[in-house]
Each structure stands twice: as C-alpha cells, then as structure tokens.
Write a structure and sequence with these properties.
Strands 1, 2, 3, 4, 5, 6, 7, 8 and 9 form a 9-stranded mixed β-sheet that branches. The protein has about 350 residues and is an alpha/beta fold. It contains 10 helices and 9 strands. The chain is globular.
Amino acid sequence: MSHRTFSVVICVYTEDRWTDILAAVESVRRQSLPALETLVVVDHDARLLDRLTEEFPAGREAASPGEEVRVLANAGPRGLSAGRNTGVAAALGEFVAFLDDDAVAERDWLRHLAEGYGDPRVMAVGGRTLPVWASGRRPAWFPEEFDWVVGCTYRGLPAGRVPVRNVLGGNASFRRAAFDAVGGFATGIGRDGGRRPLGCEETELCIRLGRALPDAVLLIDDRAVIHHKVPAARESFRYFRTRTYAEGLSKALVSRSVGSGKGLETERRYTTRVLPAGVLRGLRDALLGRPGGAGRAGAIAVGVAAAAAGYAAARVRTRPGVAFSYGPITAHTPRLEGGTP
C-alpha cells in the first residue's frame, strides 16, 4: 500500500464535551498510520474556539508525524454539514476522514480506511462504530437494529469490507476528489444546533456522489473501529422516540433532494427484512424468559411508526423543489497528493 495522506476532521460545538474532544484528538495522534493533520472545526462558539486555539496554538511545530492540529471556525451557517464543509475546504490530504467529537478511534482506524482505497474507483470508506453506554451496559429494551439512533453501527449492516449505498458520517472517509465532483454536505439537511436530532447529510451526499460518478464505489470496513459515547439522556425511550421521528423528517428531506427511489432504497430492505427479524427475535426471547425481549420488539414497532410519522409530516410541510446548498468546496491551500492509490 502506497502512503496515503489523511486529514481528519472533528466538528465540535460545546465546551460540555471538552474532555471528549481532547480524547478524540489524542486517538488520532496515536494512529498506526499517522494522519497528515487533525482539523478541529468549532461551530459558532467563540469561547470554545478561544479555548481550543489556546490548547492547540497555530504555528506550533508538531513533535512527530500525525500531531499537527489546526483549529478552525465554521465558515458557514450553524450546523454539522457546514462544519464538515469548512474542514474539507481546509484539508491538505488526499483523503478526508471524519470522527465524532465524542468518539475515540482504535489505533489502526486510519490504516484500515486507507486499505480500502486500493481501487481508484473507491470514493468513500466507512468503518464500524461501537456504543459506549453511560450506564455501562445496553438498556435491555434497546434493539441493536436501532443503534443508528445513538450514532452507531446497527444490526443488519453487512460484515467485512463490502460495498454500500452510503457510509455513516461519524466514522467515514472520502477521497478529496469526491468533493471536487459533487460539492459538500447539504446544509439544509442534518444537525444545525436546533432541538431536533436530525441527520442523513452523509446519505444525501453519497447518493449524489453515486449519480455524478456512476462507477464510484463506496465501502464499509468493519475493522476500522471507533468507540462512540452514548450519554445517559440518549439511553432513554423518550430520546429513542424523538430520534426516530427526526430520522423520518431527515429521510423526507433526502428524498426531496435525490428522489425517493435512491433516497429510500436501503431503507426498504431494512424495513421489510431486518426489522421483522428483530421483532421475531425479541418475541422469541420473551417466550424464553430472557430479559428485554418484549421491550425490544415493542421498541422496533414504535421506532418504525415514529419514523413513518416524521416522514409523512415532512412530506406535507416541505414544498416540492426545495433547494439545498452543497458548498461549493474550495480548498484554501494546495492539497498534498499521496501518490497513486
């Protein structure tokens, strides 16, 4: 494998996650394949920006490869999509990887992502995200099929290194050329600092990428592992219901952007095959007296109903032809090419 240069983007928005942010940066610094740089993008929080700039001052010479950290202010509107676009625009690497601000990457995370780019048609490689529950264990009622609710890899995704329609944004990488081809993440989709936990911005980007580059290949490799913290508030059934409803809203926006065919292609298989199997598994566990079986079956039913309600509500409220902003992504400085992949 030839050397491949990675810029790692970590988007941050609150001082409440200060310890988590430092842990995320440190996990990038310890990679077996050193990152070219870590870009910490602050989402319209002047105090956090000042504090991080003091922690990682500009111009400080890195002691070893992978230790360079640059702190940036989100150059676009408030929200995760614009923050990511800011990071991409500033990135020097041939590849851009994204890590959540409350996650830590295993030592070989970047190395496994890099191995997926041996074929020049590969435009994105994602990894596996494991939950770290604040309570120390998964709630008995919480179905693994819905681990996406807490930003993690869910039951139903294929194992190994396999092609997918879209990668999951908290543990993903893209060839920089992908953004040159289609622009950035849509700022009308995903989290924007509002009350609803929206998402799907990476799904919409990946679908646009597949349309613009029909030969493009997107992969997930479950060896590229990160560990994502799940705070106590997100272990509640109330959050579960709110998040699944918000997912329906997000899917409706994706469908407005790219059409319901591609926008819901993977979701149809998930709803008709993965979730019914999960319900049966929960009911079987309940009959066998295993804890949480009935709760998991019920949670799946509630999750489907909430997502459907959110989707229907958004389709009614969102006017046809609504426009989304995708960038454009313009590099601030020349990128460093890592050789022929």
